[in-house]
Write a structure and sequence with these properties.
It holds the Pfam family Lactamase_B. This is MBL fold metallo-hydrolase. It comes from Uliginosibacterium flavum. The structure is a single chain. By secondary structure, the protein is of the alpha+beta class. The chain has one domain: Metallo-beta-lactamase, Chain A. Helices cover 30% and strands 27% of the residues. It has 9 helices and 15 strands. The chain is globular. The N and C termini lie far apart (50 Å).
Length: 318
């Protein structure tokens, strides 16, 4: 009897192992993979939704105690060291998301354009490498009005870079940056961001479509309020493909803020609101098993999210 019982247990163990292996293999094979179209352009096939990640270059800054406002510099450097990154400076990638969904070709944010540093403003170059005509883009959806997200909309001559695209912006973001009373009350030396928003959008005021976060902007593109980084910062869930995709824009800056979501980056205009938003949006992505694309996430800027200790881990797609 003992021998037969042992044989039964062994068979059951083998069956469970086989089922587990099959499950894991199925999960691994279901994870979308990237196809490099050219240096700076990566494609992800989600069936009825096609995703192209486009590099706009990167920025770099010296790491000092001002970058993270609520953590000691030594703690920040220790986190970077543990991740195998330099501890004296930060390279900040710029990743743009282009999605073909339904009949629309949608660009989320527009990069630095002709107004960034020497290592930025590479979007048009990488579109060309990918064989994508800027005139084929039918919609541009803006997440927020920081310069590295809107400067690529119009060139220095004032012409629209994506001439056939309808432009969508969050109403609360427009209302904050384009408010005349706020502009008049702001000292001239502090008007940099306000001036950028006006240069880009004032000539377009009659044609830009504004939407309330929470609305479906286009079929398959749902907006989600993510205030904090800026007053109207908005993220987007793209649906209709084999897997949902969340474009979370600047919900986090570089990956260390994914690992440490309670840290406040110097660019967050409302640090506490941004902290709460980071956790809410990260939890949403995990709950909905959505891929995550982020403007400042590690190359190619699209991947999966998981819980890591008291924070999260972003893993780029292979």
């Amino acid at each position: 009897m003992m021998i037969k019982r042992r044989q039964v247990l062994v068979k059951w163990a083998a069956l469970v192992a086989a089922m587990t292996l099959g499950f894991l293999t199925g999960c691994a094979s279901s994870l979308p993979r990237t196809t490099v179209l050219a240096e700076g352009a990566t494609r992800v096939d989600l069936g009825k939704v096609s995703v192209t990640m486009l590099k706009d270059g990167q920025g770099s800054r010296v790491l000092d105690e001002k970058f993270v406002r609520n953590a000691p510099l030594a703690e920040v450097q220790a986190d970077l060291k543990a991740a195998g990154l330099p501890t004296d400076k930060l390279d900040v990638p710029y990743n743009l998301l282009l999605v073909d969904v339904g009949s629309q070709r949608v660009l989320f944010d527009t990069g630095n354009g002709e107004f960034g540093g020497a290592s930025a403003g590479k979007l048009l170059e990488n579109l060309a490498k990918a064989g994508i005509d800027p005139a084929s883009i039918t919609a541009v959806i803006i997440s927020h009005f920081h310069g590295d997200h809107i400067n690529g909309l119009r060139n220095k001559a004032g012409a629209l870079v994506f001439p056939n695209a309808k432009i969508y912006v969050p109403t609360p973001e427009w209302s904050w940056w384009m408010d005349e009373a706020r502009y008049a009350a702001t000292p001239e030396a502090a008007r940099g961001g306000l001036n950028t928003a006006r240069r880009v959008f004032s000539p377009l005021a009659g044609t830009v479509t504004r939407f309330e976060p929470g609305a479906e902007v286009l079929p398959g593109v749902r907006s989600i309020a993510a205030f904090g980084h800026t007053p109207g910062h908005t993220v987007f869930m793209i649906e209709g493909g084999s897997r949902k995709l969340l474009y979370w824009a600047d919900t986090t800056n570089v990956a260390m803020f994914v690992r440490n979501p309670d840290w406040a980056v110097s660019f967050d205009m409302d640090a506490e609101a941004a902290r709460l938003t980071r956790r809410r949006i990260a939890d949403l992505a995990i709950a909905e098993n959505a891929l995550v694309a982020g403007y400042h996430l590690s190359s190619p800027g699209i991947g999966t999210l998981s819980v890591r200790g008291q924070g999260y881990e972003f893993t780029p797609l292979p």
